[in-house]
Amino acid sequence: MKCLLDTHAAVWWWCMPMRLSRKVRRLMENTENQIFFSAVSAYEISYKHRLGRLSLPSPLIRDLAANAREEGWLLLPFGVEAAQRAGALDNDPRDPFDRLLAAQAESEKLPLITGDPVFDSFAIETIWK
Question: What is the crossing angle of helices 96-108 and 39-50, to 10°?
Answer without folding.
Answer: 170
